[in-house]
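FORM 12-B: Structure-to-Sequence Request
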């Protein structure tokens, strides 16, 4: 059988990463976190002193670093020019800058090419999560899923994720409100950009995860993969 390609898109805080990793692990497939790639190039630009508010400067620097994504769903990894950036790309600085960098067409072209070659080499099939996988990166994916959730649920999940990290304080009400505002700003930027915005593909199945547990979302996606075609 030909390897199955699964595209999982949606805004932040919908459970894309947890769901995609678990589904890939369960089905013996590879896993690619495309958001981590945009975060890595953003980290590199900040580190290199590129003015990320200048799209021409970002475009000129885009081809310089080399990104390597490890696709084991049980131990995903990301390096840029040989530096392991798995931890720093989750920080506030990168999160606040990534939408500007990922909106630059030259950045998208380079990273899209990289994503396509990784998917083409995944013999056992692959789950690819992002914002434009079903629409642009892999329009011929065998299964396309678009995850959604209410803004309140998304903010609560993101706050729990951030405060669950080592050394982080527990999130209070004000923190959740601030997280929700930042998350909605990022989604608005990602949905409003000209090149390959966050969007549901016409042939994607939408799953509203607001009232579902992670296990229920995983079950739902596994069923959609098993029933494909
Ligand atoms: O999924 P994650 O929150 O890590 O994505 C970080 C950012 O990377 C998004 O807010 C978006 O700007 C960008 N991104 C993108 N296209 C993708 C995946 C992520 O533009 N396929």
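FORM 12-B RESPONSE
SEQUENCE OUT:
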């Amino acid at each position: 059988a030909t390897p199955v390609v699964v595209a999982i898109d949606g805004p932040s805080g919908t459970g894309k990463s947890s769901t995609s990793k678990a589904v890939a692990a369960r089905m013996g497939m590879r896993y690619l976190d495309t958001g981590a790639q945009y975060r890595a190039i953003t980290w590199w630009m900040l580190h290199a002193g590129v003015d990320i508010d200048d799209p021409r400067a970002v475009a000129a620097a885009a081809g310089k670093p080399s990104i390597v994504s490890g696709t084991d769903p049980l131990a995903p990894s990301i390096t840029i020019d040989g530096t392991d950036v798995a931890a720093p790309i989750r920080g506030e600085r990168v999160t606040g800058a990534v939408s500007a960098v990922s909106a630059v067409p030259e950045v998208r072209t380079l990273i899209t090419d990289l994503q396509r070659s990784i998917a083409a080499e995944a013999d056992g099939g692959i789950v690819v999560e992002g914002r434009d996988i079903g629409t642009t990166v892999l329009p011929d994916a065998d299964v396309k899923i678009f995850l959604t959730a209410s803004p309140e649920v998304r903010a609560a999940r993101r706050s729990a994720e951030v405060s669950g990290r080592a050394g982080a304080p527990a999130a209070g009400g004000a923190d959740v409100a601030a997280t929700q505002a930042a998350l909605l700003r990022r989604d608005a930027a990602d949905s409003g950009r000209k090149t390959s915005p966050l969007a549901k593909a016409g042939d994607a199945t939408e799953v509203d995860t607001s009232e579902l547990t992670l296990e229920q979302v995983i079950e739902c996606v596994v069923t959609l993969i098993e029933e494909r075609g």
